[in-house]
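Continuing the batch. This is chain 6 of the set; chains 1 through 5 are on the previous pages. Same settings as before, nothing changed between runs. Recording input and output for traceability.
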Amino acid sequence: MWTGEIECVNTIKELIEEETTKLALDLSEVTLANRNAATFLAVCELKGIELRNCPLCFVDGLTKEQARNAP
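Output for chain 6:
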């Protein structure tokens, strides 16, 4: 994981923690995600955050990560 990626994920995590309303992440401009990003997004969805415009190529990976991270 490169430093820029860590900073982006940390920023998103901080913004999510500050919100008190239902959230949705628009993934329409996401073209590449590694396993760490997939895990992060899967956990977001498990916490009730809606993933909008999720590229079809991510759906299988998210499903696998959700199964791995489910309580």
